[in-house]
Amino acid sequence: MHIDLDSFYASIEEVRNNSIKGKPIVICVYSGRTQNSGAVSTSNYSARKLGIKSGMPIVLAKRIAMNKEVVFLPVDIEYYREVSDRIMNLIEEESDTLEQVSIDEAYIDVTEKTNSNWNKAIQVANTIKQKILSQEGLTASVGIASNKFVAKIASDFQKPNGLTLVKNEEIIPFLENLKVSKLHGIGEKTARVLNEIGIETSKDLSKCDIKVLEEIFGKNKAKLLHDKSLGIDNSIVESKKKKQLSKIGTLKEDTKDKKVIFEKIIELSNELNQKIKRDNVSFRTVSLITIDIELKTHIKSETISQANDIQRAVPVFKQLLNNYIEKNSEKKLRRIGVRVSNLEFFNSQRTLDEF
DNA sequence: CGACGTGTAAC
DNA sequence: CCTTTTACACGTCG
């Protein structure tokens, strides 16, 4: 089963403030560069009808919103996480296994609990939907199928507040007419390449000779694409450990001034350190993410001995920045980020100052 | 085989 | 006009 909280951030804000309920709501990530620089994180369905969508520049959204009553709010991720945690706990209680994939999405396995009975699965889904509604005032869209991939697409089929069951014999007819870009894992690039060779729908893809796909995408990806077209997915529902933590930010203005950039690195490092402490992890690999004025991203990394505090990473960031500036003396930077990976989790038991 | 950089994808 | 965070595959190098 795949459970997707409907326009999560925007819906939470509606619950928080009854006076904006039903109005178009746009949740924004302000970059702090100018008054309205930044992007739209989430909009509710009322705002989507106007054409305000995720990822859109805020300035553009405001232009569309001109002369209309549209509510713009900044993201309050801390609060959304609290709500999310409560909901995930509630979902977990109704599941054999929970796999949370993001703040507003989860897969659950209910094979045991339902004895592989579709009707029982629908009951479980409705119980979960009802609890989320009564306890948090939010709606969710649910997809039920015999694998994660089909469940994911099913949850997207009727939104918001949907419930879609796809039984095994319904998988092919269900997928058949979908555009390839609707298949989870096929993004913009892959869809474009497929379109170029005349493949528009899932059906087209399933009929395409695997050899042809191998020519273009290589053996592994070809198999993956072919499986997707037939709704085949053997991956299991399992909770996964985080593999990296990062924090990225936008510079006040494009610059190549080492001092200015490093100040931002320090600021981001402190924020990243909070995450490191919160998750109680140590790290071995340290990366500096640079995004230049053309929005091209570069990542430079270095692996060090195990550390549990960002203090150990800061000199590495400095070094990586020096290297970058040396090699790209002409290029100004727009954004900068810090990342740690090669993580190891600790029991709260273990004392940390042994490093 | 581990480390690293890049591309793709999703949220 | 252009945010943030994470994952994973693949090629390459030593």
From TrEMBL:
UniProt main location, coarse: cytoplasm
Cellular component annotations (GO), alphabetically ordered: cytoplasm
Residues flagged as site, Substrate discrimination: 9
UniProt entry tagged with the keyword Chaperone: no
EC nos: 2.7.7.7
Protein keywords: Cytoplasm, DNA damage, DNA repair, DNA replication, DNA-binding, DNA-directed DNA polymerase, Magnesium, Metal-binding, Mutator protein, Nucleotidyltransferase, Transferase
Superkingdom to which the source organism belongs: Archaea
One GO term (biological process): DNA repair
Catalysis performed (reactions): DNA(n) + a 2'-deoxyribonucleoside 5'-triphosphate = DNA(n+1) + diphosphate
HAMAP family per the UniProt record, alphabetical: DNApol_IV
Family matches, as NCBIfam families: PRK02406.1
UniProt name for this protein: DNA polymerase IV
Organism, scientific name: Candidatus Methanofastidiosum methylothiophilum
